[in-house]
Design goal:
Layout (H helix, E strand, L loop, with lengths): L2 E7 L6 E5 L8 E5 L3 E7 L4 E8 L4 E10 L5 E9 L3 E9 L5 E10 L15 E7 L5 E7 L5 E6 H7 L7 H7 L2 H8 L8 E5 L6 E7 L8 E9 L5 E9 L4 H7 L20 E11 L5 E4 L3 E5 L3 E6 L14 E4 L9 E6 L4 E6 L3 E9 L9 E10 L6 E4 L4 E5 L5 E5 L5 E5 L5 E9 L2 E8 L6 E6 L1 E2 L1 E7 L7 E5 L2 E6 L2 E8 L5 E4 L11 E7 L4 E6 L2 E6 L4 E6 L7 E5 L4 E6 L2 E6 L4 E7 L4 E6 L4 E6 L4 E8 L2 E9 L4 E9 L2 E8 L3 E6 L5 E4 L1 E4 L6 E5 L4 E5 L4 E6 L2 E7 L4 E6 L9 E5 L4 E7 L6 E6 L3 E8 L4 E7 L4 E7 H5 L11 E2 L4 E10 L16 E9 L9 E10 L9 E11 L2 E6 L6 E6 L2 E8 L4 E9 ...
Parallel strand pairs: 1-88, 33-59, 50-54, 79-83
Antiparallel strand pairs: 1-87, 2-3, 3-4, 4-5, 6-7, 7-8, 8-9, 10-11, 11-12, 12-13, 14-15, 15-16, 16-17, 18-19, 19-20, 20-21, 22-23, 23-24, 24-25, 26-27, 27-28, 28-29, 30-31, 31-32, 32-63, 34-62, 35-36, 36-37, 37-38, 39-40, 40-41, 41-42, 43-44, 44-45, 45-46, 47-48, 48-49, 49-50, 51-52, 52-53, ...
Helix pairs in contact: 2-3, 8-13
Amino acid sequence: MPFVASTSKQPTAVLGAVSGFFLGNDEPLVLLNRLNLVSLYRETDDTLEHLSDYTLFASLKHMEALPLFDSKGSGRHVVFLFSVKQGVSIVAFERNSEGAIKMVTLFHGEVDTCFYQERPDRAFLCCSGCYQTLGDEILPVVTFSIHSGGVFLFDVAAAIASYGGRGKNAPLLDRLFSPDYAQNVLRKRKKQTLFTQGHLSASELDVRSMAFGPSNKEKNSAVLYILYADVSSKTHVSVYFIDLGVNEGQSRVQKKPIWPWLPDTLDVFPRGDMLRRRDVFLANVETNACLLHVNADGLFVLGPQLVTFVSSKSAGNSSTLSRPVTTLAFPPFSAYVEPVCCASLPTRDLLILFWDGTCIKTTVKEEAEGLNPGKMVLVNSIMLSLRTIPSSLVLLPRGHCVVGSRMAHTLWMKWFTGESGVLLENCGPMFDLTVTLDGPRVSVVASTGVGMSGGLSLQRSAVNVRHDASMENILDVTRMCAAGDVVILSFPGYSRVCQFQTTPTLSIKELSESPFDKSKETLTLVYDLERDTYVQVTSVGVYVVKGGGHGTYTIRNDELGIHHANANAHLGLLVFSSSRYVSVVDLTTLLSKVSIELENEVACVTITSLYTFAIGEWNSGAVCLYEFHDGEVVLKGRILCSATPCSMCVLSHLHTSRLVVGLLNGCIADIPLEAMTMEGAAQETLIRMQPVQLFNLEGHNAVLCLGEVPLIVILCDTGFQLTGIDFNDVAVCAVIDNPRIASKYMFFSRSENALVLGNIVDIKKLNSRFLGLNATVTRVKYIAWWNVFVLAVRHNEKDQMLLLMEHELTIAWVPQKDPVAIELLENERCVFIEPVVLGGANESATDTARDGDKTLLLGTTFAFPDEQLPRSSRFIWYSVEEGQLISERPQLRQLGSKDVEGALQCCCVVPNYSGRIALGINGCVALYSWNAADLVFVAEETVSVGTIVTRLQPIFQPDASYLVAFDARQSCFFIQVDTIQGSLKIVARDTEPRGVMDGVVLESGKTHDICFGDDYYNFYSLSRGALPSPSSSGAAPVAVARSKLKTKAQYHLGDMVTAMQLGSFAPCLLENTAVPVHSTLIPGILGPQIVFGTSHGAFGTITPVSNETYLLLKALEVGVASAVPALGGFEHATYREVLRAGQERGYSRNASFENANPVSQEVFRQRRKRYLSKCVCSGDLIESFLTLPHATQERVVREADQCIRGCFASMKSTLEEFLEHSGVDKHIAGESDVHLNGCMTVDGVNALFFEKGLPTLPLTREVVKDLLQKMQRIY
């Protein structure tokens, strides 16, 4: 089953920050590393201004700013990038002629001296420094670790000089640097070795930090300090000397022939004099020291308790015993916290940030008096405590600094005053998520954040409305009008007049007596503040009320009446229609400006500008734009629609006016007013199955589609986006234009019979709401039986269980102290929350049972610091006692518990096996049955499957019982449950050792697709065919026992998936009938969508699609990938290859190995094929087609068309088999008139695509653009 993977919310964690003069001028800039996104900021006097974001086809591990300046100070900083896949890039930034800042690539390559891919968590050290050449130029050098026991040295100038070959990048270097510097400094380093591997001393077991020292007096050399712990856990600082003056030719002569059997072409081992360990610079520093820092004053060693300092004046002394060392204790902390980052201030101070946000300034002073005048002393002072969890710190010249955080918000701070603010909001890593359903609307609730930043994040495609006031028990409202202090509610045949009251709270009071006409329905109401005049348009005429006196009709027509009206107080115009007659009235003089009789009756009308108005016609289905001047009306444009227009709104976007029209057949039409011509056609999109009634949300550049499932249409650069609103069945809406009232909108819900006054907080496609609990929430589960959320909150001593009602989360209720919280035992941690039915039949995922049998199963383990895995656990079952009132929160009542030996991890019910549950304990799956007589669970059968079972997933199907077990080391297993004998048997498994973080199972007919994310940032889908009946006998069970799960799809997501559930970020479920998302927005969706969250704060969606839809989208992806610049040299196809430890890297991927032996060529080809992305395409990259220039879009469409033709021409099997075994990324499309084999002609391809609702060949830019605009709206 193919998939489309898309990012719904970009990662917000900041893995690092650097600053520098990246544009070559005096303007300081800041770069933030956001995994696969680089954000650029500029320092201003008061804050930091965001400039641009750069999306990379890589997951960045490290980022360093490197200075390249000549002796006159001319030059710029460049940026070193190191990816998780061990790719290295050097990039620079420059402004183009249009003023935009571009990223340009100066170097890209792999670490050629590293043969294989290491685990991503092994590369955690990186630092940069400078050295002086023989020509007295200062050049940068970078050292980083990929595996333990060694480091890699990278010569930046040599890499820039050698990249491109034969001076291809010479114009770029001359543009970025002075020609003299590029020629005499950079290009002279061309023959130097780029990467050199250096081995550390065997005694340095645990390397914690490293830093370059100040520029060494010796030319072409640098000093590197290493902070490490030895075998006895004592901590020391060693010093290494690095020789950077030997080129490639000299290195081949000087290298040690330790391995003479290797060919001479493999110059991959370090030269004997490249990295030399001199001695132990500092011995026996603080045992838990974790950070090194070097500045002009000297060397600092930072630990949780002490700061150790060695002055640069004495650093050259070779004797460790005689070297003067200054030590100072930090102020005591309430808990053990480590320093995580630091930076040198211009005032000879050191700014140190600890893990808990504490900021300490360490001052270096010379002792003026006493026994040792001139001796360096340290003074600590606590500045402030930041509400974040720092991970990086960078200073800027104007006094600002940026505090980056992986776990919490990234802050800006003025270090001299302590003033700070949020630069980038970060929800933090995700631990768990759950999905709630409210009719057709879906909400995703995730437990995010660590410590004081922890809580719940509500993510949904629904706009948040702040409720200020409400009126209950109101029926049959047809219209609402608000102007000044007056509110008029229209009902069939009459109106009710109300008035706003702001004291003591905002409310609406009905007026028993008023000068307005209450005997007729009110269509619109306008208030003129200068003249203190109300204009009420009723179903029979225009009624005017001046001051507090009586009102009179200035225009009245009892025979025809008024059917439609629209007023604009700012323009001073009123337009209304009576059957086929349309009139425009000046609200100032209340005199008619123009009148016109039409051929067709009017269906709707709206004012578009001071001199134009638009109408929708019955019968013809036309939208007409009229212009009036001096009493004459001229038809300016006429657009034909597929159905009768029933509502219209005018919105402004990018300085152009667009007319959004709701049609009777459920479509909306988006019409640019400037482009309206005679007898043109509108671009329409079906969004619901009822007539579309639109309401203009003034001030938000969006319209609200009224109805049972309300939607909001948001205009954007690429068309429009769809989102929802957080309450149901909005039948009528009105704008409150009164500066004295905080509320701006009134909403009437027909199903709730309530009138709500409030504000729309923010309008965007995916809306977030965070409920802070000031603690880490490790587990969250929505229980539909009681409409509550059950949370596991992590505290130091033990976990705490909380219950939240759904409305408490949606209105951002923050509990200060929960009286119904359940405290677990000391050192007891919650591992799962699962609703079960005691003794239930387990025939479906939503079993119906008596309330007394519905229980909540809570699994816990007892965790101690000295145990790698818990040795004892238990599971507890609770009943939920609902409150007497709707607002009263339910409570948990414990019914019983069962002790378990081992580390309990997960739980699920056993399908079609009455009263049974399955538990994941260590690497085993155990069955437990409910004993109704003793009211206790009894252990039955156990089967060993892996190492640590992370999740159990039941598969519900008639007359069979199967489970899927996900394992943290051994991937996943298909387990058959014999409901007669009560035995467990593994019937299928994945043979690859993949560490599963979380997963789901999709059922499509008789096929089951197991989807999961692993600990290498990959996504996999494993397929299992038709499940055999457990009653089958003979040879069949033997064959089943040997079956393997087949990898059908694989893809590198670039981020670690920590939680995954069936759900959607679309405004409505794909399966709903009210809004036809499934059938019209994107064709070929085969099943429910999957939502996931990551360790870096990102949310995403994975959508299963048909083979035909996938082929079309994949062909577009290949075309877009060739058109989009590969920033930093990182290519999309390489980025999407799955990541595994042990992949060939560096020289192992050299083509010379393949040429040496014909057999090895096929071996290497098969190895690389295992890693290629398969049956998954990037929705993010495909959607970037909409932002490409017109000419580029045309080229992409042609390439995609040829790719599809070429695929069908080379197809010798079914489309599913072709996609499984052929890489579309590497496929070379034929000519546009390629002959298709067999009966699969172009007509046959078009017939297949047409049947699936896809665009047919030849593809056009307009059709592809429309398809991608629709695809954007489902996630």
